[in-house]
Amino acid sequence: MLLEYFKRYIKVSRGVTDKSVKHYVTGINTINSLLKKYDYPIKNVFEVNSIEELDDILLFLTSNEEFERKDSVGHNMYSVAFKHFYSFAKEETNFFGNNIETMDMVVEIPKQSTSTTTKWNRNQILITQAIEGAHYLCEHNRNHETFISKATGKAYMEGHHLIPLKYQKSFSHSIDVYANIVCLCPICHRLLHYGTDKEKSYAAEELFDTRQERLENSGIDLSKKEFLELVI
């Protein structure tokens, strides 16, 4: 999933050609080959779920002699590719704050994680970027204020999947996408999980109205009635 989003991001934010996009992807895939070769816990950069995982991979790469050698021979193409992906994941260009709707696209269904229970993987990077895209304002009520987050230095907000991931099997494309993630203050987030049906219905219907077109652009096509039957 992050692979396709990265390709869209690098093309839109940097204005590069398809050939350059392919060049960057090839560079990261070379890094993936090294991760597998050295049996690193994460085998694919495009499957990371947090910035912390990327930081750990970066630490591994900077201490790996084979990577340093390949990067030198390749005129730093691998480290540059990783740097671009890191910028995408960490949102160092403020791109998502102004352009998140350009990232709406159809995405393949993600993998499932199985332990004692089965759940669909959710990507924390996408949640963080969706919150940035909403400018750290509650999308149900922009007047709601919260405390300042130590991690971001901005108003604390939470990401909420408008269509819960437990319904992924009802859709032919991923619903862990930007269009399905709304930024909410903690109170509104709890409202959508634990509020009365009447209050939940009002909030959910309002949010759906603002997201229906974006959901359709991401391959998630359902009516308001179908949506409310899922979430209420």
Describe the protein in words.
This protein has 232 residues and is mainly α. It is 52% helix and 6% strand. The protein has ten helices and four strands. A hairpin with a 3-residue loop joins β1 and β2. α9 packs across α10 (224-231). The protein is elongated. The two termini are 28 Å apart.
What secondary-structure arrangement, pairings included, does this model have?
Blueprint: H1 2-14, H2 18-37, H3 51-62, H4 65-73, H5 77-90, H6 95-99, E1 112-114, E2 118-120, H7 124-133, E3 158-161, E4 181-184, H8 186-194, H9 197-217, H10 224-231
Antiparallel strand pairs: 1-2, 3-4
Helix pairs in contact: 1-2, 2-5, 8-9, 9-10
Characteristics:
single chain, 232 residues, mainly alpha, two-stranded antiparallel ribbon, two-stranded antiparallel sheet, 10 helices, 52% helix
